[in-house]
Structure formats: C-alpha cells, structure tokens
Amino acid sequence: MLTETKRPLTSWECYTPDIFFLNCESCALEFAKDNNIELDTDAAPEGFGISECWACGHEFDYPPSCDGCGEYLQGDLTQEGVQYLKERNFPKWLKDYYLSNN
Q1: pTM score, two decimals?
Q2: 40 pLDDT exceeds 60?
Q3: Domain ranges in the chain?
Q4: Residue-wise burial string across 65-98, b where 16 or more C-beta atoms lie within 10 A, e elsewhere
C-alpha cells in the first residue's frame, strides 16, 4: 500500500498597506474574508490583497510557516536555511522534502 508523502502547504501572499506575510490557503481565505477581498474580482480595499505563490522566488533562512496557523509552507531555502534545517530538530518529512530539493 502506497502512502502519500507529507509536504509543506502551498504559500499564499497576503498584504496590507503596512505589511506582507505568508499564509496557508485556509488562513489566506480567512484574511480575504476579514478584509472584504473577493478572489474572483479585482475588488479589494486599497493596498490589500492575496495571491497564491507560484514560484514566487522567496528564499528563507529557515523553513517558512503560516503566519496564521503555524503549518509549514513551501518556499526556497538559502544555503544557510539548508544548514539550519540539518542542525535542528524538524520533522523528518520536512527535512526529506527540503533536502531532496537542495
């Protein structure tokens, strides 16, 4: 029986006029609801928005996590991030995911 390999969740960019952060899809949709952002239109309060990250190019010095719920997110690690991951006690599936891509 094959089991599905666990992997980090897709990253979503959420932003306001003052800050930018990453969330998982569920938390990004909650942010959109809280800020009256409709996904199927361009209507959003000035300076607010969300978008799914598709090869955004963000690089991290540690495995990124959702600003809302803390779940691990997909993103590219710098060499320092790879070393940080190797030296710390992260879940095996997360190490496997990132180390197989670096």
Answers
A1: 0.81
A2: no
A3: 12-100
A4: bbbbeeebbbbbbeeebbebbeeeebeeeebebb
